[in-house]
Design a protein that fits this description.
- It is an enzyme of class 6 (ligase).
- This protein is α/β, with parallel strands linked by helices and 444 residues long.
- The protein folds into two domains: 327 residues, ANL, N-terminal domain (Rossmann fold, 3-Layer(aba) Sandwich); 113 residues, GMP Synthetase, Chain A, domain 3, CATH 3.30.300.30.
- It has eleven helices and 22 strands.
- The strands form five sheets. A nine-stranded mixed β-sheet has the order 4-3-5-6-7-8-9-14-13.
- Strand 1 and strand 2 form a beta hairpin.
- Helix 1 crosses helix 2, helix 6 packs across helix 7 and helix 8 packs across helix 9.
- The longest helix is centred in the first third of the chain and has 22 residues.
- It is globular, with a radius of gyration of 23 Å.
- The two termini are 36 Å apart.
- The chain binds zinc ion.
- The site of zinc ion (ZN) has 7 residues, from loops.
- The site of zinc ion has 7 residues, from loops.
Length: 444
């Protein structure tokens, strides 16, 4: 089985030796060049010499998003600005954005890791790659762009939005690979259909989708609609950007972490202790090669589990399960925890529904109250007498959705059926939650 980089097939002990060496270098770098880390190490009474094995990493402090904000804009840099060639920032929903920076070497590594990811998803040198991730301060667009060029793909930097133009270029340029958020690709597919174009008739063969949580059922919908194979890409700007982990198209079961560049841990978010392999917890990453902004034990807030061992594709790198959701996005409805992606699974499973939904949160008295607004599909709507949602057929469907969510996710939600196209379409990250409790919307 072919891979883009030889490190992907290394045996575990060889990989661990490299990780240990690189971990030591990273720790020296932050201890001597980043006052924030030096202070945090000193508070825990740890010096770089105390870290002799990969397990010793547990002695080190965690980094959280707020630490990046508190050190805005450049206080976490471990190199002088003269060595920085790229700066990105993530949009802060509240307060200051988080800023990340890259040296020339960092850009090289990132390019290689993303090239590896595109290769893993089916892309090859010489392919045309249509990149519909947003360009700009967000790492998605430019991160994929860099890796796509590194692999040797003819890269189309269309960015998100302008769906008609996306469709024209897909038809005229005949790309083999498309990169996007899952919700936006769905939007492109539906817009094609409304113009009388069959999405399965295009040249596309592979999709690299990410930047928002999505379900297996959503994958099935997209693959069927376009007649393609779709793989999940994972990354976050604080750790590097897209490419931290990538699903192999051979198995489509779990994402390969770039072990030679990132050390992964999974912790219990309450006790902060490591959880055993295979069990769900919060992903924590330490960068092993980054120069401009090395990061130690970054708490991602993403819930996943990891496994080690050889994958059927031949790769030996650590695998993480598809991210269930972010701790921040987890809804607590009357004491029950639920991720929007779990609700999505039930929706995608029902033939009468379209994969478009929003969850509205409100306060009723002191209780949180959730409403699920979900679109019915065209066929159901056309057959519904008088297009009337009070008709017994619609009422029966509403009850069935409610029951299924209650039984499977253990939460009670009021369900409202919506006409086709009533839910706003995504041109980037889908807005799944509308929080009316404080009149603020939280994009996922
Ligand atoms: Zn694999």
């Amino acid at each position: 089985m072919s891979t883009f980089s030889q490190e992907e097939n290394w045996n575990r002990s060889k990989m661990e030796r490299l990780q240990q060496e690189r971990l030591k270098e990273t720790i020296e770098r932050v201890y001597h060049h980043v006052p924030f880390y030096r202070k945090a190490f000193q508070q825990l009474n740890v010096t770089p010499d105390d870290i002799q094995s990969l397990e010793d990493i547990q002695q080190l402090p965690f980094t959280k998003k707020r630490h990046l904000r508190e050190n805005y804009p450049f206080s976490l840099l471990a190199t002088p600005m003269e060595e920085v060639v790229r700066i990105h920032a993530s949009s802060g929903t509240s307060g200051k954005p988080t800023v990340v920076a890259y040296t020339k070497n960092d850009m090289e590594h990132w390019g290689e890791i993303v090239a590896r990811s595109i290769f893993m998803a089916g892309g090859r040198r010489g392919d045309i790659l249509h990149n519909a991730f947003g360009y700009g301060l967000f790492t998605g667009g430019l991160g994929i762009h860099n890796g796509s060029e590194h692999l040797g793909c003819a890269t189309v930097p269309i960015s998100g939005g302008n769906t008609s133009k996306q469709i024209t270029l897909i038809q005229d340029f005949c790309p083999r690979v498309i990169c996007s958020t899952p919700s936006y690709l769905l939007n492109i597919g539906e817009t094609m259909k409304s113009k009388g174009i069959d999405p399965a008739s295009t040249s596309l063969e592979f999709a690299i989708l990410g930047a928002e949580p999505w379900s297996e059922e959503m994958r099935n919908n997209i693959e069927e609609m376009f007649g393609i194979k779709a793989a999940d890409i994972y990354g976050l700007s604080e750790v590097m950007g897209p490419g931290v982990a990538m699903e192999c198209i051979d198995c489509q079961e779990g994402l390969h972490i770039a072990d030679d560049h990132f050390l992964v841990e999974v912790i219990d978010p309450e006790t902060l202790r490591p959880v055993p392999d295979g069990e769900d917890g919060e992903l924590v990453f330490t960068s092993l090669t980054k120069e401009a902004l090395p990061i130690i034990r970054y708490r991602t807030g993403d819930i996943s589990s990891i496994t080690r061992g050889k994958c059927a594709c031949g790769r030996t790198t650590t695998k993480m399960s598809r991210v269930k959701g972010r701790i921040d996005d987890m809804l607590i409805i009357r004491g029950v925890n639920v991720f929007p992606s779990e609700i999505e699974r039930y929706i995608c499973d029902m033939d009468e529904l379209a994969p478009h939904y929003q969850i509205h949160l409100q306060k009723k008295g002191v209780m949180d109250h959730a409403e699920l607004h979900v679109e019915v599909c065209e066929n159901f709507f056309e057959l519904l007498p008088m297009e009337d949602f009070n008709h017994p057929t619609a009422q029966e469907l509403t009850k069935r959705i409610q029951r299924s969510i209650k039984m499977e996710a253990l939460v009670s939600m009021d369900v409202y059926l919506e006409k086709p196209k009533a839910i706003p379409r995504s041109e980037g990250k889908a807005k799944r939650i509308v929080d009316l409790r404080s009149n603020v919307s939280t994009p996922l």
